[in-house]
Specification:
CATH topology of the largest domain: Pnp Oxidase, Chain A
GO molecular function: 4-hydroxybenzoate decarboxylase activity
CATH superfamily of the largest domain: Electron Transport, Fmn-binding Protein, Chain A
Organism: Carboxydothermus hydrogenoformans (strain ATCC BAA-161 / DSM 6008 / Z-2901)
Family: Belongs to the UbiD family.
Protein name: Phenolic acid decarboxylase
Number of domains: 2
Helix content: 25-40%
Catalytic activity: 4-hydroxybenzoate + H(+) = phenol + CO2
Number of helices: 14
CATH class of the largest domain: Mainly Beta
Radius of gyration: 23 Å
Length: about 450
């Protein structure tokens, strides 16, 4: 079976990891509430959505384990796999037709009535598509640019789109200056590799993101030509909305519950006029709950690749990096180093803060600390940090506008915590050990059978 959303769902089923929701679910608040209950970490298939014949799926890539399963690797290999795909991208394979075009509508459609587009929060301005991958093409080099953008449903064939992504917004403004509409395709229901590659920072790497997805999958990604616009889309996607971003047209968008768990304000945003809807037989609508792990993790993984390589240029003994979900997958960085010289902890802090303006707080630990265990990191801070020596504060730096305390002044203070111990005192900081501890399994010892 081709690498697709359906093939991945079958993989999750075989592993007893996909939960079936049989009870009728309302797309207004209830569907989102169920995904939020698990922070988007539990794959759910919503079989019965009130008012619709189309099922939905969410929570499928909210964990590193699920991404690793999709790419058929161990989760410890994720950053190396992504780096390989960036440095050695593959190629796509153009097909004359594909499942995503089993049904084609070019007029008389109402996407709000066709698909269960959810309303997530009390103060959201309406229903939003949150898992839609927007596809555009570089007009000079022909590279396919993809990114996940939120889209507000305005009417039967009309969407407002928030285009903060630098590559997309600059391209749109260039078309607008010429008085031309910009062609875009909105793709829903894809293999996790396509979702992951869409988060690749275009300005950093300048790659065709479909080619990166091909390398992640391990074979050429099959694509088909759209019906009404000059773009290619994944042949095995579930749903595609073809359209044009109109020049000099804006529509109120928001408020909307955003990445950090706060409402983003209403702003005037460009409009997509949908020219065609294509979809598979019995399509599956994909949902990502905003601020869930599934929302944060794909972007965090790509940012971790950049962070790791940035720090490695300064501290070659960096072991691993982690952008935490509580920090939005961007604000809080935990870095593990194999310390070989004094000062490396602080050098790693400076490198991390310089890697991306969104990084706000950095903790550097020795390689005996599990950076994915918040308790272990806090233990290192508690036992290896003296505030007057090990905490660095940099005032007045750039931050992320998604973090509301930054918006109070338009700048952000940055902080680094060097939670590594002095090399001369290594014996004093040796952790307690029990021989054979890792081989002990509690289930072999405990029983409730009295």
């Amino acid at each position: 079976m081709a690498a697709s959303l359906r093939s991945f769902l079958e993989q999750l089923k075989r592993q007893n990891s996909l939960y079936l929701v049989k009870k009728p679910v309302n797309p207004r608040f209830e569907l989102g509430a169920l995904l939020k209950k698990t922070k988007g970490t539990v794959p759910m298939f919503f079989q019965n959505i009130e008012g619709y014949d189309v099922p939905a799926v969410g929570g499928i890539v909210g964990t590193r384990e699920n991404f690793a399963q999709a790419l058929r690797i161990n989760k410890s290999e994720l950053l190396a796999k992504i780096t390989e795909a960036i440095t050695n991208p593959g190629e796509t394979r153009l097909l004359p037709s594909g499942p995503v075009q089993e049904n084609v509508l070019t007029k008389g459609f109402d996407i709000g009535k066709m698909f269960p587009i959810p309303t997530f929060h009390e103060k959201d301005s309406g229903a939003f598509i949150t898992a839609g991958i927007v596809v555009a093409k570089d007009p000079i080099y022909g590279r396919r640019f993809t990114s996940i953008r939120r889209m507000q449903l305005n009417g039967p064939n009309n969407l407002s789109i928030l285009i903060e992504s630098p590559g997309l917004i600059e391209q749109y403004y260039e078309f607008e200056r010429r008085g031309q509409a910009m062609e875009v395709a909105i793709v829903l229901g894809v293999h996790p590799a396509i979702t992951l590659s869409s988060q690749l920072p275009t300005q950093t790497f300048g790659l065709d993101k479909y080619n990166v997805a091909s390398r992640l999958i391990g074979e050429p990604l099959p694509v088909v030509k759209c019906k009404t616009i000059d773009l290619e889309v994944p042949a095995d996607a579930e749903i595609v909305l073809e359209g044009r971003m109109l020049p000099y047209v804006r529509h109120p968008e928001g408020p909307f519950g955003e990445l950090m768990g706060y409402y983003g304000p209403q702003t005037m945003q460009p409009v997509v006029e949908v020219t065609a809807v294509t979809f598979r037989n019995n399509p599956i609508f994909q949902v990502i709950f905003p601020s869930s792990y599934e929302h944060k993790l794909p972007n965090a993984l790509m940012r971790e690749v950049v962070l790791f390589n940035h720090v490695r240029h300064v501290v070659p003994t960096v072991q691993d990096v982690h952008l935490t979900m509580a920090g939005g997958g961007r604000c809080h960085a935990i870095i593990s180093i194999k310390k070989t010289a004094e000062g490396q902890g602080k050098q790693a802090i400076f490198a991390a803060l310089a890697s991306n303006k969104d990084v706000k707080h950095v903790v550097v630990v020795n390689d005996d600390v599990d950076i994915f265990d918040p308790e272990d990191v806090e233990w290192a801070i508690a036992t290896r940090v003296q505030a007057d020596q090990d905490i660095i504060i940099i005032p007045g730096a750039q931050g992320t506008p998604l973090e509301p305390s930054h918006n109070l002044r338009g700048v952000s203070a940055k902080m680094g915590i060097d939670a590594t111990y002095p090399l001369a005192e290594e014996e004093r900081f040796a952790r307690t050990q029990i021989p054979g501890y890792d081989q002990i399994r509690l289930e072999d010892y405990l029983t409730l059978d009295w």
